[in-house]
Every structure is written in C-alpha cells, then in structure tokens.
Amino acid sequence: MLKVGIVGGTGYTGVELLRILSQHPEVSIHAITSRNEAGLPVADLFPSLRGRVLLAFSDPATASLDKCDVVFFATPNGIAMHQARSLLEGGVRIIDLAADFRIKDIAVWEKWYGMTHACPDLVAEAVYGLPEINREKIKHARLIANPGCYPTAVQLGFFPLIEAGIVDLDHLVADAKSGVSGAGRKAEVHTLFSEATDNFKAYGVPGHRHLPEIRQGLSQVAGKPIGLTFVPHLTPMIRGIHATLYAQLTAGADLQALYETRYADEPFVDVLPPGAHPETRSVRGSNLCRIAIHRPQGGDTAVILSVTDNLVKGAAGQAVQNMNLMFGLPETLAIDQVPLLP
C-alpha cells in the first residue's frame, strides 16, 4: 500500500483528491494538512467523506509527511517550492497541483506569478504531468508538475494538429470557459452566488497565468515558438472546462482520422463521432477529456471542441493518474468513474 500525504486538504482540489484516493485500493491516506483546520475530523468539514476518510486534519508543521511514499500539494502557488527539497531528499515523491514547477523559464514564471522562485534547480528536473505526451517520463519521475485545468483541455485539443504539421502555428486561438470551482474555495466577491449565477463573462484577456504554460507545451510539440490567443471565461456552473479551439489549416488531412489515431490508446481521451458537440456534463466527475472535430463549411479553419472536468482531469484525477504511472500501477486505477448525470 502506498502511504499518501496531502498538503492543503481543505480546498476543492483537496477534497476531490480525498474522494478519489479514499476509493483507491492501493492507497493508505497517511496525513492531510491544514493550518486553519488542524485537529478537525475531515468528515466534519466534508460530510460526503463520512465513513470514507477517518483522519483529522493535521498541522503542516507537525505532520509526518516524510513517512509518505508520495505527497500531493493541493496548495496555492508558492507553497510547494518551499517544502519540495527536503521531502525529495528524504525519498518522498511529489505531485504539485499548483504551478510552482510547470514553467521551465524561471524569469517567465516569476513575471506571471509575482514572486521569486525558491528552487529553480528543481524546476529543471520536474516532469510536466500530462500523460498523453509525457507518459514514459512520468513513470521515472520523482517530482511532477501537474498541469492546469485550462492547459489540459487546450493542449489535448491542439496536439494532433500540431504534431501533424498542418496548421498555422502563429495564429492559434483558444476560447475557453470554466466553472466557478476553478477559482478555488476561497471567499471572493466574483464567485459569490449572486455574482456568478445568471451571468457570463470573459476575464484575463490581456494575459492569464495559464497562457505561458499552454504556449510552452504546444511549442515543445511544435519544435518552435507558437502564437496563441487565449481568452478564458467564467460560466455559472460549478464544474467543467469547455475549450473551443481554432486553427488555420495549411495542408489537407482527414482530421477525424487524425484524432482517432492519435488518441486510440489513450484511456482518458474520447474522440467523438463526426459532427458531435461535447457537453461539460458529459465528463462531470470523471477523468475524461472528450473531443470533437469540426471543419465548418469544409473551409480552411479547424474548430476543435474539448471538454473536461476541471477538478478531475484538470486537477485531482490527473494527479492520481500520474501517481499510478509513477508507482507502476494500472493507469486507470480508481479514476475510471462513469460521469455523473444529471
């Protein structure tokens, strides 16, 4: 049994990790930390976990995380980088669900996240945890940078086109929408019910923190810098990412066959039949990314629709997928749930 620790177990990502890991047959949850809730039984804060998680939250300063095989950081940006080195030196593997290790260019990271990086040498070592592109590297990693929710949906949608070399790489467009849980569990005015419901808006148009992450991933696949316009939107739903992706074709290809072939062996990427329009509720509570391919009026614009659950494939589910790969377990173990409907 793997001994697992979770740092920051009180947010939406943390409780999603607990939901998944509590059902994992090869996992024993050893510690769940929270400064504010130390001593409180987990099930008192999250009644959905009653009978499933019997632990209480522990203070990060006293939690025996060094006794774990793997520690998940479900914390705000800037936390994991201060604790990673000592855990790694003690033989503990780390999966960071925040952004501390995602961006390889330290100057770019510091610009977008507004802080000095505490361990730039570990950034160079960290493996970007998108299994569909880095599966073999993940298997041998001791430090995983779990991808962001928007970047997961956008990159999976664009990869086949870029790998095939059939699109204009200078003018890619990602128009993406997220449910309010993507903003986290902290109290903020814009996510209050009266503010977010019955409303729809774009945000971060001049620049969003996920932009350099997406550009980095797509550029690595392309073998050259790419041009991307990324516009996120907040939608009045709890879970879900819907990315509508646009690319100008530079060569002819059977796009449907291209995607079906690329993702034929991927357990969590579902390429839908021609003409389909995936819905966010079709992946709710699951680790799936569902993709549909369109070429409106047979023109030279490819329109790719990509949907995920931002808390599962966009966060906790993908983190567990990475853990399974790191420890030689079946990749789909504990994360092959059927989506919830309605």
TrEMBL record:
InterPro entries from the UniProt entry: AGPR (IPR050085), AGPR_AS (IPR023013), AGPR_dimerisation_dom (IPR058924), AGPR_type-1 (IPR000706), NAD(P)-bd_dom_sf (IPR036291), Semialdehyde_DH_NAD-bd (IPR000534)
Gene Ontology CC annotation, any one: cytoplasm
UniProt name for this protein: N-acetyl-gamma-glutamyl-phosphate reductase
Top-tier EC class: oxidoreductase
UniProt keyword Protein transport, yes or no: no
Primary residence: cytoplasm
EC number: 1.2.1.38
Metabolic or biological pathway, per its Swiss-Prot or TrEMBL entry: Amino-acid biosynthesis; L-arginine biosynthesis; N(2)-acetyl-L-ornithine from L-glutamate: step 3/4
Gene Ontology molecular function: any one: NADP+ binding
GO BP term, pick one: L-arginine biosynthetic process
Localization: Cytoplasm
SMART domains registered for this protein in UniProt: Semialdhyde_dh
Keywords: Amino-acid biosynthesis, Arginine biosynthesis, Cytoplasm, NADP, Oxidoreductase
Family named by the database record: Belongs to the NAGSA dehydrogenase family. Type 1 subfamily.
Occurrences of domain Semialdehyde dehydrogenase NAD-binding (ranges): 3-141
Function description: Catalyzes the NADPH-dependent reduction of N-acetyl-5-glutamyl phosphate to yield N-acetyl-L-glutamate 5-semialdehyde.
Pfam family, one: Semialdhyde_dhC_1
Catalytic machinery residues: C149
